[in-house]
Amino acid sequence: MAPRYKRILLKLSGEVLAGGASFGIDAERVRALAAEVAEVAHTGVQLGIVLGGGNFFRGVAAAARQMDRVTADSMGMLATVINCLALQDALEKQGMPTRVMTAIQMPQVAEPYIRRRAIRHMEKGRIVVFGGGTSNPFFSTDSAGSLRALEIGAEILAKATGVDGVYDKDPRKHPDAVRYDRVTYSEMLAKNLAVMDASAVAMCRDNNMPIVVFNLTTHGNIMRMSMGEPVGTIIGN
Ligand code: UDP
């Protein structure tokens, strides 16, 4: 079966690398994730991946404990790079050529993010892992996901999370929560549905970038999503 998309921007939160623990990196979890991603890449889909850093550090949480927000956000952005290097290592162990590109320059560690070069890597069959968020404080890696999806001309922003889509309320707190198969950007924003941050959703709305929110913890879901099977919730117009 042929994949539905030619190019996908996959947004993964840092927590997906942490496995059972909510902190740090679980090597077996990263290996399993890389194996799934590599399988998808072998079908010919071009993949860009934006990784979060929440398994190490979240700026907003540190700011709530009196830390300067801009400094805290810089720490969060650096945390994403640690995750990117772990994922690159695991993907390369799966035989997938992978490049890490960072929005904050650190050329001894990874390539600087240059849009055309990122596209070229993907055209050559390399997975590109984007680190450093947007390089700006007060943003999240969801916004980095929207931004990179638009910049690289992805057909969809695929946000993989721990829940299987967008619900009318938090399904972890409310057993009667109802999942949407489809929801509009405006509804997401008006109802303040918290699965993705508002600036990321608004950027996609303004530029017609479809989003799919799906559960990463179900094995095989990245492949199903890339084949266009109905996993999770589609956010569109
Ligand atoms: N961050 C930032 N600007 C960005 C992206 C991320 O300042 O463009 C910081 C912010 O402090 C955030 C942290 O990096 O809390 C980690 O990113 P995020 O919370 O989005 O990670 P995730 O929840 O996806 O693991």
From TrEMBL:
Domain of life: Bacteria
Binding site for UMP: G53, D73, T134, S135, N136, P137, F138, F139, S140, T141
GO term, biological process aspect, one: 'de novo' CTP biosynthetic process
Classification via CDD domains: AAK_UMPK-PyrH-Ec
Domain Aspartate/glutamate/uridylate kinase: 7-215
Residues that, per the record, bind ATP: K11, L12, S13, G14, G54, R58, T161, Y167, D170
PANTHER family to which the protein is assigned, alphabetical: URIDYLATE KINASE, URIDYLATE KINASE PUMPKIN, CHLOROPLASTIC
Oligomeric and partner information: Homohexamer.
Name of the molecule in the record: Uridylate kinase
Originating organism: Paludibaculum fermentans
Gene: pyrH
